[in-house]
Design goal:
With 315 residues, the chain is of the alpha/beta class. The chain has 2 domains: 2-98 and 286-306, NAD(P)-binding Rossmann-like Domain (Rossmann fold, 3-Layer(aba) Sandwich); 100-278, NAD(P)-binding Rossmann-like Domain (Rossmann fold), CATH 3.40.50.720. The protein has helices spanning 11-24, 36-43, 58-62, 82-87, 100-115, 118-126, 135-139, 156-167, 190-196, 216-221, 239-248, 287-306; strands spanning 2-6, 27-31, 48-51, 69-72, 91-93, 148-152, 171-175, 186-187, 199-202, 226-230, 251-256, 276-278. Helix 1 (11-24) links the parallel strand 1 and strand 2 (27-31). Helix 1 packs parallel to helix 12 (287-306) and helix 5 packs across helix 8.
Length: 315
């Protein structure tokens, strides 16, 4: 069996992949996300596609006549053409929970970075001007303690972070399909969350129902001076409307790990705003997450070879 990883893998990631491949007796090949020729060549005899972020289109699937499984290293499958996979008889699986800790920690990091204006203070300090900041920027800083943090979606990463935020002195509220009485926090309506939360953190998948759920109307209904954090999917947010809300002061800041277009265009207006902290869709990416992900992926490879039911089959 041959597994193909399409990703610009670090040396540590490659070594980890080779270790699992040897343990399970599987041939593992890595191609760079920008090397289309290598992808076409390697797909010709690939059985399992280990998918990270670059979209898997119908055209890509058609290049893999032996392809049996697209294994997402993570949760969101919006970057996979599920209908094309189904038509080609290719199974799609994901792995809920493997990145929950990493995403929870990144969401917390973004919250703190925005509240403490780190994207403003870091370059200022490096220029030797750290003791002469703009007083307006300092007036805009704050603490987690005493604030209300609202989670839109309350799965593994959000609920894990909820307990930590309560320990730091925040009130935690959330919206979800249903109340989760065994988890920290208070279940509220979407309207109450937007109007009362000092920090709104997004943790829902990108679907036709959630596409641009944070639009101009939603932003206008948020508490004045609130912070938006997004470690889920860029398409959840109307970026032009968000930029307007940040420029006007309606929102005091945003922490963004994801964008509607990825890699993000350097001309994106959000990148020019001093009250925005950004990262390149790396909330999930830690060695610990990769270890858990590869363990889950190669277990599904074993199951596929043995004719056993796959874990977390999506389509």
């Amino acid at each position: 069996m041959k597994a193909l990883l399409q990703y610009r893998a670090s040396p540590g990631f490659r070594a980890m992949l080779d270790r699992y491949a040897a343990e399970f007796g599987i041939e593992a090949v890595v191609v760079d996300e920008d090397d289309d020729a290598a992808l076409t060549r390697e797909l010709a005899d690939t059985d399992v596609f280990l998918h990270v972020l670059k979209p898997i289109t119908a055209e890509v699937i058609a290049q893999g006549p032996r392809l049996r499984l697209i294994q997402k290293l993570g949760v969101g499958v919006n970057t996979i053409d599920l209908e094309a996979a189904k038509a080609a008889g290719v199974t799609v699986a994901n792995m809920p929970g493997v990145n929950s800790q990493a995403v929870a920690e990144m969401a917390l990091a973004l919250m703190l970075a925005v509240l403490r204006r780190l994207s403003y203070l870091d370059p200022l300090t490096r220029r030797g001007e750290g003791w002469s900041p703009d007083p307006v920027q300092i007036d805009g800083t704050g603490e987690i303690a005493g604030r209300t943090v609202g989670f839109m979606g309350y799965g593994g990463s959000a609920s894990r972070l909820g307990a930590a935020l309560q320990a730091l002195g925040a009130e935690v509220i959330y919206t979800a399909r249903s109340a989760k009485p065994d988890l920290p926090g208070r279940f509220v309506s979407r309207e109450e969350l937007l109007s009362t939360a000092d920090i709104v953190s997004l943790h829902v998948p990108l679907t036709p129902e959630t596409d641009r759920m944070i639009d101009a109307t939603a932003l206008a209904s948020m508490k004045p001076g609130a912070v938006l954090v997004n470690t889920a999917r860029g398409g959840l947010v109307d970026e032009a409307a968000l930029a307007d809300a940040l420029r006007s002061g309606r929102l005091s800041g945003a922490g963004l790990d994801v964008f509607a277009e990825e890699p993000v265009d350097p001309a994106n207006p959000l990148l020019a705003l001093p009250n925005v902290v950004v990262a390149p869709h790396m909330a999930w990416l830690t060695p610990e997450t990769l270890e858990r992900s590869l363990a889950a992926a190669f277990e599904n490879c074993r199951r596929l070879a043995a004719g056993e039911p796959l874990n977390n089959q999506v389509a």
